[in-house]
Design goal:
418 residues, globular, 0% strand
Length: 418
C-alpha cells in the first residue's frame, strides 16, 4: 500500500513538473507564430514542389539560427532588462555612430515590417477568398482593421494567447498530413544534413531563411520576455520556451516542405487551390477548406506580429516608455497597419509579394544580426552573461552564411536584368 502511494505521489509530481514546464511557453510561441505565416506556407510549398526534399537543410539551418539568435535577444531582456533596440542605442557613445546605428535599425525594421504586413494581409485573405469566393483585395482591408483594433486595445498577454492557439491549429494540420503521405524518410534525413543548392534555388533558399529568421522578432522577444521573467535564474525557463516553441515552428515548416515534396514535385504553385494539393491525402475533398483555415491562422498571427515588431523596435531605439500604452507606439502600429491595408487592397499578386517579403528579410538579417552580436559582447551590459567564444563563433558563422546567400541572391537578380 505504501509503495503504491509512493508511486502515485511520484506520478503526480512528474505530471505537475511537466505541466509547469509547459507553462513557460509564451514569448517563444509568439516568435514561432510570427514566422509561420502565409509566406512560410507558400515558400515551403514551392520549395518542396520545385526541388523535392533538397532544400530541407535550409529549414534546419534557419531553425538552429533562429534558436541561437533569439536566445541572445531573450538574454538581453532578462539580464540587462532592456529591449534590443535600447541596448543598441546605448552601445555606441560616439554621437555620429550612435545616430547612424539608431536610424539604420529603425529604417531597416520599418521597411521590413511594411513589406511583411502587405504580404501577410494578402496571404491571410487568400484563405478566406478561396473559401467564400470573394476577391482577396476586398477581404484583406477588413482583416487589417480587425488586427489594428486588437493591437490598439489588447495587451501582450492577449496577443500571446491568440498566437499560441493559432500555432496549435497549424501544428495539428501539417504534422498529421506529413505522416499520412508516408514520405521517403531516408531521403529526408539525408537532405536535412547535407547542404545542396540546385540550379535556380537560391532565391527560394533566401526566402526560406528570410521567412524563419525574422529580424524584428529579436526586438519583440527581448521586450516580451521582460513580461514573463526578471531574474538570471529565469534564463533556464526562457531557453526552454525558445527551444520548444521555435523547434515546433521549424517542424511545421519542414512538414509543409516534406508533404509538398512528396505530393507535388514538379507542380507549379500559383494559388491556394495548388497549395491544398498537399493536404488531399489526409482531408480529401476537404483539403482546400482545411488549408484555407491554416492559411488564415498563419496569416493572422504574422500580420499581428509585423506592426508589433515595428512599434517595439522604434520604441526601444528611441526610448519610448509604457509599451503599448505609448501614443507613439500606437501611431507606428497604426501606420504600418494602414500601409498593409492600403497596399493589400490594390490587388497585388499574392504569391510574388510573399516571396519578395521573405527575400528582403533574408537580405536585412545580417545587418541586425551584426548589431545583436556587438551588444552580446558588452560586459558592462550583460556581465558574466555575455556571449562565450563558442556562441560568438557560431554567430559569426551564421552572419557569414547569410551575407553570402544575400550577395549570391543580389548577383542572381542583377544577371536577370543584364
Amino acid at each position: 500500500m505504501t509503495q503504491e502511494l509512493n508511486d502515485n505521489t511520484l506520478t503526480v509530481v512528474s505530471k505537475r513538473t511537466m505541466l509547469q514546464r509547459l507553462k513557460v511557453i509564451g514569448p517563444g510561441a509568439v516568435i514561432a507564430a510570427s514566422f509561420i505565416g502565409p509566406g512560410t506556407v507558400t515558400t515551403a510549398t514551392r520549395a518542396g514542389a520545385s526541388f523535392g526534399f533538397a532544400l530541407l537543410w535550409a529549414v534546419v539551418f534557419s531553425i538552429i539560427t533562429t534558436i541561437i539568435l533569439q536566445e541572445m535577444a531573450a538574454r538581453i531582456g532578462i539580464i540587462a532588462k532592456k529591449d534590443l533596440g535600447q541596448a543598441i542605442a546605448e552601445q555606441f557613445k560616439q554621437p555620429l555612430l550612435k545616430f547612424a546605428s539608431i536610424w539604420i535599425i529603425a529604417i531597416a525594421i520599418a521597411v521590413g515590417c511594411s513589406a511583411y504586413i502587405s504580404g501577410d494581409l494578402i496571404g491571410t485573405s487568400m484563405g478566406l477568398s478561396t473559401l467564400f469566393g470573394m476577391p482577396a483585395n476586398v477581404i484583406s482591408p477588413f482583416i487589417g482593421v480587425l488586427i489594428l483594433i486588437l493591437g490598439l486595445t489588447g495587451s501582450y498577454k492577449i496577443i500571446e494567447r491568440v498566437m499560441i492557439f493559432l500555432v496549435v491549429i497549424m501544428s495539428i494540420t501539417f504534422f498529421t498530413t506529413m505522416f499520412v503521405v508516408q514520405p521517403d524518410w531516408s531521403s529526408i534525413f539525408k537532405n536535412a544534413v547535407v547542404p545542396n543548392i540546385p540550379t535556380g534555388s537560391i532565391v527560394t533558399i533566401i526566402a526560406l531563411i528570410g521567412t524563419t529568421v525574422v529580424p524584428y522578432n529579436f526586438f519583440i522577444h527581448s521586450s516580451m520576455v521582460q513580461e514573463n521573467w526578471s531574474k538570471p535564474s529565469d534564463l533556464k525557463d526562457a531557453r526552454l520556451d525558445t527551444v520548444l516553441s521555435i523547434g515546433v515552428g521549424g517542424l511545421i515548416t519542414a512538414a509543409i516542405l516534406i508533404t509538398a515534396g512528396a505530393t507535388m514535385l514538379g507542380s507549379d504553385v500559383r494559388n491556394v487551390a495548388d497549395l491544398s494539393i498537399q493536404l488531399e491525402p489526409l482531408f480529401g475533398q476537404w483539403a482546400k477548406v482545411f488549408l484555407c483555415i491554416g492559411i488564415f491562422a498563419a496569416g493572422f498571427s504574422s500580420a499581428l506580429a509585423s506592426p508589433l515588431g515595428a512599434a517595439v523596435t522604434l520604441a526601444s531605439v528611441f526610448g519610448w516608455k509604457d509599451g503599448m500604452k505609448n501614443k507613439k507606439f500606437k501611431l507606428v502600429f497604426t501606420i504600418v497597419m494602414l500601409i498593409g491595408i492600403i497596399t493589400s487592397a490594390t490587388g497585388f499578386e499574392p504569391m510574388q509579394v510573399l516571396l519578395l517579403a521573405q527575400a528582403l528579410n533574408g537580405i536585412l538579417l545580417p545587418i541586425v544580426a551584426i548589431y545583436l552580436l556587438i551588444v552580446m559582447n558588452n560586459k558592462d551590459l550583460l556581465g558574466n552573461y555575455v556571449n562565450k567564444t563558442v556562441s560568438n563563433i557560431i554567430g559569426i558563422a551564421i552572419v557569414a552564411v547569410c551575407i553570402f546567400l544575400g550577395g549570391y541572391s543580389l548577383v542572381d537578380v542583377v544577371k536577370t536584368f543584364l
